[in-house]
From TrEMBL:
<dbReference type="InterPro" id="IPR017930">
    <property type="entry name" value="Myb_dom"/>
</dbReference>
<dbReference type="Pfam" id="PF00249">
    <property type="entry name" value="Myb_DNA-binding"/>
</dbReference>
<dbReference type="InterPro" id="IPR001005">
    <property type="entry name" value="SANT/Myb"/>
</dbReference>
<feature type="domain" description="Myb-like">
    <location>
        <begin position="9"/>
        <end position="62"/>
    </location>
</feature>
<keyword id="KW-0539">Nucleus</keyword>
<dbReference type="InterPro" id="IPR009057">
    <property type="entry name" value="Homeodomain-like_sf"/>
</dbReference>
<feature type="domain" description="HTH myb-type">
    <location>
        <begin position="67"/>
        <end position="117"/>
    </location>
</feature>
<dbReference type="GO" id="GO:0003677">
    <property type="term" value="F:DNA binding"/>
</dbReference>
<keyword id="KW-0804">Transcription</keyword>
<feature type="region of interest" description="Disordered">
    <location>
        <begin position="120"/>
        <end position="147"/>
    </location>
</feature>
<keyword id="KW-0238">DNA-binding</keyword>
<protein>
    <submittedName>
        <fullName>Transcription factor RAX3-like</fullName>
    </submittedName>
</protein>
<feature type="domain" description="Myb-like">
    <location>
        <begin position="63"/>
        <end position="113"/>
    </location>
</feature>
<keyword id="KW-0677">Repeat</keyword>
<feature type="domain" description="HTH myb-type">
    <location>
        <begin position="9"/>
        <end position="66"/>
    </location>
</feature>
<keyword id="KW-0805">Transcription regulation</keyword>
<dbReference type="GO" id="GO:0005634">
    <property type="term" value="C:nucleus"/>
</dbReference>
Length: 357
DNA sequence: AACGGCGCCAACCGCAGCCAG
DNA sequence: CCTGGCTGCGGTTGGCGCCGT
């Protein structure tokens, strides 16, 4: 038996609010407050609305001190920084921006900031709308607000166009070149050391440690790659291993740790990147860089990476691998395994980095 | 001028957590 | 402790309006 509906759906009005409804709701709440019961509120006012709808209308539109209109660069910076560090906790992010609602911020992120940060159009979702990235990226509106669109993946760097108040770091090739990031401690701590304020260049610098924008290595499609791209594997570890051998040639255990570490350190950016990989074809260029991935490993993991076995090994299962790696690495992986399996059901092909030629 | 594509944003939906009884 | 109702949250959707063809 399902839960009881919060209101009589047949008897409630849906859709846009009329000025009269707004006025009645506003007047009542200003005079009496919500009474702690949104469900009962519409009946008291005589509105044919669901209580949740009233609450939403009040919180997002009618309550005092709501700020409408364009977001400032400072606000953008805060949103981006918090999103990278805490994810889509819109209510928490909204709490840092007086006058802004979580809904506003969520919309702003989904429609504008995401594109600004990552440059490519989102992968088409099953229920989502199909977007025309190229067209979208060159609309007048976007031209008015320059984005990193043209900088992503082609080595062109925009220096803090959106975060002018931040230091104008050139794109460093490794994390070591980013000021104030300690090279020890947990990845999260390290990222937190920049105050959760990530400019486009911060993000690029993080990713450039394993995506070498300047010196891409072109790996011709192999049957293995093609298979990975077209045939989702249920064996994620197998995919990791494949990627390991294709991309980095680093010890498998290190690479697994590396992957997990990145996922842990920048989960949302990671998810975003997966999200942007949609139209992979054989003429895509795959970028990889062993040296940079090693640097990232070191930067993120400190001594952790050195604990992992350095013996290259062929193996298709974690059990086989576990004897080669530090127990901590195993437990760390096992802890996040359900998440990985959930997130990477179309496995590593969606986690690899493809940049169009 | 008409039409289609797309972005934007208000609003809806469903789930999870909280809390009182 | 259990249950049911309410609230809050995040993801998704629908519709309007702008823009390009």
């Amino acid at each position: 038996m399902g839960r009881a509906p919060c209101c009589d759906k047949a008897n409630v009005k849906k859709g846009p609010w009329s000025p009269e409804e707004d006025a009645r709701l506003k007047a009542y709440i200003e005079q009496h407050g919500t009474g702690g019961n949104w469900i009962a509120l519409p009946q008291k006012i005589g509105l044919k609305r669901c209580g949740k709808s009233c609450r939403l209308r009040w919180l997002n539109y009618l309550r005092p001190n709501i700020k409408h209109g364009a977001f400032s660069e400072e606000e953008e910076s805060i949103i981006c920084g918090l999103y990278v560090t805490i994810g889509s906790r819109w209510s928490i992010i909204a709490a840092q921006l007086p006058g802004r609602t979580d809904n506003d911020i969520k919309n702003y992120w989904n429609t504008r900031l995401k594109k600004k940060l990552f440059g490519r159009q989102p992968k088409e979702r099953s229920t989502g709308r199909i977007t025309n990235g190229l067209k979208a990226e060159t609309t007048k509106r976007d031209q008015k607000e320059p984005s990193m669109v043209n900088g992503a993946g082609n080595g062109i760097v925009n220096h803090n166009q959106y975060w002018p108040q931040l230091a104008d770091f050139t794109t460093p090739s490794t994390l070591h070149e980013i000021p104030n990031i300690p090279h020890h401690g947990s990845p999260v701590d390290q990222l937190a050391c920049v105050g959760g304020r990530f400019s486009e260049d911060h993000l690029r610098s993080v990713f450039s440690t394993f995506v070498d924008f300047q010196n891409p290595i072109h790996i011709p499609p192999t049957p293995l790659i093609s298979e990975m791209l077209t045939e989702p594997s249920s064996n994620i570890l197998g995919s990791f291993q494949s990627v390991n051998s294709i991309c980095c040639d680093t010890p498998q255990s290190s690479n697994t740790h590396f992957i997990n570490t990145i996922r842990e350190a920048v989960p949302n950016a990671w998810n975003e990147l997966q999200y942007f990989v949609n139209d992979v074809s054989e003429d895509e260029v795959i970028y990889s860089n062993q040296q940079s991935s090693d640097v990232l490993l070191e930067a993120f993991c400190g001594n952790c990476s050195s604990r992992a076995s350095s013996t290259p090994e062929s193996s298709n299962s974690w059990n086989d691998m576990s004897s080669l790696v530090d127990p901590l690495t195993v437990s760390e992986y096992e802890a996040c395994r359900p998440v990985i399996q959930q997130d990477c059901s179309a496995p590593f092909r969606e986690s690899m980095y493809f940049v169009p030629r």
